[in-house]
Amino acid sequence: MKLNVIHRSVLALAVTTALTVGGTTIAQAADPGAPAQSALTMAPTATLAAVTKPKVTTQPASKRVAVGKQVTFTVKATGYAVKYRWQQQLPGKSWTYVAGATKSYHNVTASAARNGSSYRVVLNNVAGQTVSAAAKLTVVIPKPVITSQPASKRVTAGAVASFAVKATGYAVTYRWQKLVGKTWTNISGAVHSTHNVRATSAQNGTQFRVVVRTGSGQVISKPVTLGVQSTRSDPYRVGLATSLKGWRVNLASSNPNAWASVKAQGFSPGPSSGNRYVVGEFNVRYLASGSSAAWWDLDVEFVGSNGRTYTDTDKFYWNNGIYSLNEMYRNATGSFYSVVEVPATAAAGGRWKITDHTDWQKPVVVWYAAN
User: Fold this and answer.
1) Which residue in 213, 220, 217, 149 sits closest to 184, CA to CA?
2) 352 in Cβ contact with 278 (< 8 Å)
3) Rounded to whole angstroms, how far apart are CA atoms 21 and 257?
4) CA 72, 77, 80, 83: dihedral to nearest 10 degrees?
């Protein structure tokens, strides 16, 4: 239907409006008392086209972007007085309107939770509405990268050893583990980039590592070792090897009442009345460069429960003592015995004390339980 609206002006200053429909003109005078005018008029004709609902000319496009980046979805449409309302559909959810998203474009910050989500726009005007095609958002989450590996630590028993890792990635999580036997085991509550350990002598040589994860995968740090220097109050157990400055030592066995075994090997005399022979068997490995001798670098003493210090007995020559070891080079190994005479009451609860003088300015002392 075509509508022509004609405004006429007459010489008598009366204004008449004529409406032409399908070639028939209906005139109405502005002044009810004046006759309808059909002449002396000259006016343009305006044509009004029918209004249609919006039409999408360019659909929103799917996007692939790295996590944390901003992405823009855009639509192009034709139509009179078009209004826009964007919708989103998160994974596993229904379509919902996005608050404030009322433009021809919509900005989204990519997050792991939005990976796989979809976006579309509802276009409205007075003639109706049109819904665009849906565009999919793919969020790329890279695997974490360890930028700083944890380092091995050596502390004195009772001190705190702190292991730390640095990593990059989105929403990184941490899980520290320790090696138990041959199995890496999660440490309860150790879920931060730093892991603190209150060291005990029993933990000497324990290995740790950390598993760093993001939503796209994981990476595992290199293993590190906790070295614990024992104390008199927290000594190593028999059989636990440890590395000192220039030597690796191990109290392989300890006999707090050894007169029977000493006598069996043909040594005499026996201990004085009220005393005992205490025998320790030690294995050593030379770690430093060049060469040295165990008797030169190592002091082996027994500290009784009475607090007194005892050294090798001079009642007889023990041919498997520390002086029986010759000069040793790097990674050479050897074994020796130490025989001390102590009061019987001081033997129980006594400690073997080993001092490494490889660096005479900074000697290293470790302790072993005698029984």
Assistant:
1) 220
2) no
3) 129
4) -30
pTM of structure: 0.66
CA end-to-end span of the chain, whole Å? 112
Q: In sequence order, which residues have a C-beta less than 8 Å from that of residue 365 and are 6 or more positions away?
A: 229, 353, 354, 355, 356
Using alpha carbons, select from 41, 18, 21 the residue that is nearest to residue 30.
Answer: 18
What pLDDT digit, counting tens, does each position of 199-217 carry?
999 999 999 999 999 888 9
- HSE (CB half, 13 Å, CA atoms) of 210? 28
Write the CATH number for 114: 2.60.40.10
The yes-or-no verdict on residue 145 having pLDDT over 90 is: yes
How far apart are alpha carbons 150 and 20 in whole angstroms?
90
**52 to 49, 96, 127, 128, 364: CA distances (angstroms):** 9, 26, 5, 8, 91
Question: Is residue 58 packed enough to be buried (19+ CB in 10 Å), middle (13-18) or exposed (0-12)?
Answer: exposed
10 Å Cβ neighbour count for 17? 16
Q: Are 246 and 293 in contact (CB under 8 A)?
A: no
Whether the Cβ atoms of residue 10 and residue 40 lie closer than 8 Å to each other: yes
Domain holding 217, by residue range, is 145-229
Tokens of 231: 């104390």
Whether 225 and 120 share a structural domain = no
- The number of domains in the chain is 4
Per-residue pLDDT at 194: 98
Joined together, the tokens standing for residue 283 give: 């294995």
DSSP category for residue 216: T
The closest alpha carbon to 227, from 209, 201, 246, 250, belongs to 201
